[in-house]
Inverse folding.
């Protein structure tokens, strides 16, 4: 890459060895089944996974298209089998819209994730003309032969769906703002919302949505607040929902109002329907890591101590203490089915852009599942002989670390980069690790 980087590269490490979908398992089972369970290892800083691993390869999103990556050849292709379609090489917008792999209505790369089950990819789009667009949930046949819409609510225009696929069910958020006949102390009309988390049995013919988590279950205060479900995730037999609550309160004698936000995670048992407020365990509730059948987190008041807790909030205990990062060093925790990781990088202010950018090679510490340090390695991204600076990587499981990245340039454009590192190299002691390129300049 000859373009000079002016901002950041975001990378997500992903997985490999998994089997394809079989019959739907018991959704209340507490055993993790990788071919039907929500693939938490693909999470990108809390955002729904943009990758999904099947028996022979990966489905992933890049820009406005959905691709398939063959796990052996590491070659990719848009998920569309129309013989005369130019796919991502099409320059005419109206023609691109006819490609089955095209994600309609996305002004920027899809951020709400994808799911896979039994031969179909599930994802969010927006449809309609420029003056009346609304969000839908679509499914695309895994062979690219067809696509259709399975959730279409024309009132959902401003708040996108969040969705996951877990054990043969699609879970998604819905939030619709409505006007009430009430006014606040300033005479402003008070807003309300219709909201909830819904589920759809993907084996059913009807594909009928069923309310899973209601607005009443989301409420924590006196009922005057507006709860908004954000990200949803799955851990074993529990569905986790991130809730934002916005209140308007009078802040002075003149009647001016200030927006006050609350943030918390709710965990609902699929079988018993019991709901747990995880903020009782960690008041911040920002960074829960899903680790098979438990959650891991660094408490707000103990930022260097890692705790484990069951998804119903029971049995919290400290499992690891890290060294406090030095000044100017950013550090992140990650995991997969084999290892735990601490990823760190140093930053310095760039004279031309004024941005805090990475200074050089990124460091990765690899730990065993009993938190013994196995190795420390550096990771390089080298394209056309140029060593690039990057940060913010995630982690996964399997025989490859897939690097999913956006490189922002000084002309406000970005280049997509997809690469990988054979996971067997993680424990080698000789030299740095270099990302092998799959997609990018």
């Amino acid at each position: 890459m000859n373009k000079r980087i002016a901002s950041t590269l975001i990378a997500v490490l992903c997985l490999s060895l998994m089997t394809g979908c079989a019959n739907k398992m018991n959704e209340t089972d507490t055993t993790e089944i990788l071919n039907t369970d929500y693939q938490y290892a693909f999470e990108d800083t809390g955002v729904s996974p943009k990758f999904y691993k099947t028996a022979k390869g990966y489905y992933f999103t890049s820009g406005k298209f959905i691709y398939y990556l063959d796990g052996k050849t590491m070659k990719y292709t848009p998920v569309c089998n129309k013989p005369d379609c130019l796919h991502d090489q099409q320059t005419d917008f109206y023609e691109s819209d006819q490609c089955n792999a095209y994600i309609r209505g996305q002004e920027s790369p899809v951020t709400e994730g994808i799911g896979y089950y039994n031969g179909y990819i599930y994802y969010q789009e927006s449809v309609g003309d420029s003056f009346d667009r609304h969000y839908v949930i679509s499914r695309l046949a895994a062979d690219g032969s067809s696509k259709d819409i399975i959730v279409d609510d024309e009132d959902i225009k401003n708040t996108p769906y969040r969705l996951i696929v877990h054990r043969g069910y699609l879970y998604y958020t819905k939030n619709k703002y409505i006007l009430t006949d009430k006014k606040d102390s300033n005479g402003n009309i008070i807003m309300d919302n219709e909201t909830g988390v819904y589920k759809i049995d993907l084996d059913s013919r009807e594909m009928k949505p069923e309310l899973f988590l209601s607005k009443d279950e989301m409420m924590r205060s006196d009922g005057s607040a507006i709860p908004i479900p954000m990200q949803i995730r799955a851990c074993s037999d529990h569905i986790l929902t991130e809730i934002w609550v916005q209140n308007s309160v009078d802040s002075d004698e003149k009647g001016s109002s200030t927006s006050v936000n609350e943030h918390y995670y709710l965990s609902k048992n699929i079988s018993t329907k019991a709901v747990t407020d995880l903020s009782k365990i960690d008041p911040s509730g920002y960074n829960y890591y899903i680790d098979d059948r438990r959650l891991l987190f660094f408490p707000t008041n103990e930022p260097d101590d890692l705790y484990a807790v069951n998804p119903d909030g029971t049995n919290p205990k400290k499992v690891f203490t890290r060294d406090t990062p030095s000044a100017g060093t950013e550090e992140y925790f990650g995991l997969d089915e084999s290892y735990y990781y601490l990823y760190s990088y140093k930053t310095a202010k760039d004279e031309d852009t004024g941005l805090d950018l990475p200074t050089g090679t990124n460091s990765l510490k690899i730990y065993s599942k009993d938190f013994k340090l196995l190795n420390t390695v550096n990771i390089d991204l080298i394209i056309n002989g140029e060593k690039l600076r990057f940060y913010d990587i995630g982690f996964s499981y399997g025989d490859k670390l897939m690097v999913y990245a956006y490189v922002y340039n000084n002309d406000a454009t970005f280049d997509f980069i997809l690469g990988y590192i054979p996971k067997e190299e993680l424990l080698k002691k000789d030299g740095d690790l270099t990302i092998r390129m799959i997609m990018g300049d």
In short: The domain at 5-48+162-439 is CATH 2.130.10 (Methylamine Dehydrogenase; Chain H).
